[in-house]
Amino acid sequence: MLEEYPIEGRRAAEISASVERAVADGGLAPGQLLPPMRELAQRLGVNPNTVAAAYRTLRERGVIETAGRRGSRVRPKPATTARERIRVDVPPGVRDVSDGNPDKALLPSLAEAFAAAAAAADREPVLYGSDPLEPALVRHARADLDRDGVPDGPVVVTSGSLDAIERVLTAHLKAGDAVAVEDPGWGSVLDLVPALGLRLVPVGVDDDGPLPADVERALREGARALVVTDRAQNPTGAAVSAVRADHLRTVLAAHPDVLLIEDDHGHGIVDLPLRPLAGTVRHWAFVRSVAKAYGPDLRLAVLTGDPLTLDRVRGRQRLGPGWVSRIVQRAVAGLWASGAVDARAVAASYGERRDALIAALAERGVAAYGRSGMNVWVPVPDETGAVARLLHAGWAVAPGARFRMTAAPGVRITVSSLDLGEVRAMAEVVAESVGSGPVRYYA
C-alpha cells in the first residue's frame, strides 16, 4: 500500500527531500522498494514527470538505485545514512577486530612535530594568498614518488585519500558515467561513486590485484575510470605484483582515454615494492595517504597526476576549502624527514600477525587472504551467520557486505590490535563459526 511510504511534496525538490529525510530517520530502510512513479504521482496529485525528476535527483545523490522494470529502491548503504548504522555493535567485553584502524602503538608521537610546525607558524603566519603547499612536504613526497617509479607530475595536498579520489572523479566525469572498482573493495569508494551520480562496475580481485580480464571487460563496455589499490588492498590485502602490473598496463594501453586512479594508502606500512600503472593513459592520478602510518586524524594525502587533472583538482579545491592546513603539512613533513615511522618494522609487525592468523586458519582448513597491510579476508558460506557466531564467541569482525557488490561473502579481520597470543584461539573460533558446529567461548 502506498500509505506505508512516508513521501510527500508537490515539487520534485520537495519529493526528493522527503525521501532523503525518510531514509535518514529510518522511515525508509536500506533496500526498501519505492512506489512506482505513476502510482506515487497519482497519490501526490502531481505529473509523473515530477516524480521522475525527483527519482533522478535521488539517484544522482546516491540515495536510491534503479534496476529497470524491477523498480527503484533505497541503496543498501545510501549516502544520507549515517555510517555508524552499518557498523557492528560491539558489546562490552568483546574483542573488536572490525574497525580497520592501525595499531596505536605503531603510530609516531605528534607532539614535537606539531610544536615545531606551530612555532614556524608563529614566526611567519600563513595568510590568504600564501602558497597552499608546504615546500618541504612536496620535496619529500616527490622524492619518494620518484624512488617508487611514479611518473613526474605536479603535487597537490588533499584531506585524505577519499577527498583526492572524489576530486579526481569529479574533475573528469559526469553523472551517469561508469567507474570500474575492485570487488571486494574499499567500502567508502563503493559509496562515494554512486553518491556522485556515477555507476559502479565491479572488477574481481585476487592476491595480485585486479583481474586483467575483468578490467578489460569493464573498459570495453564503457567504464570511463578505473580505481586501483596498489598495496594493502582493503579488505583483501592484495598487492599488485610485477606480472599483474604488466598485464594491466597492456590492458590500459588499449584504452588511453580512461581515467586511472591509483590509491597507495599502504605507503609506510608495507614492505612489498610498488608497481605503479600510471603512464599508460592520458589522464591519471596517484594518491598517497599518511593515515595508516602516521595517524588517521591527520587527514592528509599527497596527490600527483597529469597536469590537466591536477590543475582541475587544484582549481576546484581553491573554491572550496582553499588548502589543507600548512601547520598540518609542516608537521607531516617533519615526521617524514625525521624517519619517525620505520616502515620496515611496521610492515614486519603487521605481517607477523597477519601471516600467523592465515597459517592458523589454514591448519584448520579455512582459506584466508592477506598479502599486505593490516587486514585478512576470510571467505564464508554464510556471512550473517559467521558474524553472529563470532560476536557470540567474543569477537567482532567486519561483515563483507560493507566491501562487496557481486563478490562472494566473506568477513574482514583487522590484525592491528591482535596479540600473537590470541591468534590460535581466534582461528579456532573462526573455523567453528564458518561451519555449523558449536562455537566455544574464549575470554
Describe this structure in words.
The protein has 15 helices and 15 strands. The chain is of the alpha/beta class and 443 residues long. The strands form four sheets. Strands 4-11-10-9-8-5-6-7 form an eight-stranded mixed sheet, with helices on both faces. A three-stranded antiparallel sheet has the order 12-15-14, covered by helices on one side. A hairpin with a 5-residue loop joins strand 1 and strand 2. The longest helix has 21 residues. The radius of gyration is 23 Å and the shape is globular. It starts with 11 loop residues before the first helix and ends in a 9-residue tail after the last helix.
Number of strands: 15
Report Rg: 23 Å
Helix-strand makeup class:
alpha/beta
Q: How much beta, percentage-wise?
A: 5-15%
Q: Mean pLDDT, nearest integer?
A: 91
List the helices and strands and how they pair.
Blueprint lengths: L11 H14 L11 H8 L3 H13 L3 E3 L5 E3 L20 E2 L14 H13 L11 H13 L7 E4 L2 H12 L5 E6 L3 H9 L3 E8 L2 E2 L1 H9 L4 E5 L12 H12 L5 E5 L19 E7 L1 H4 L6 E5 L1 H13 L6 H13 L4 H21 L11 E5 L3 H10 L2 E2 L1 E2 L10 E5 L8 H12 L9
Parallel strand pairs: 3-13, 5-6, 5-8, 8-9, 9-10
Antiparallel strand pairs: 1-2, 4-11, 6-7, 10-11, 12-15, 14-15
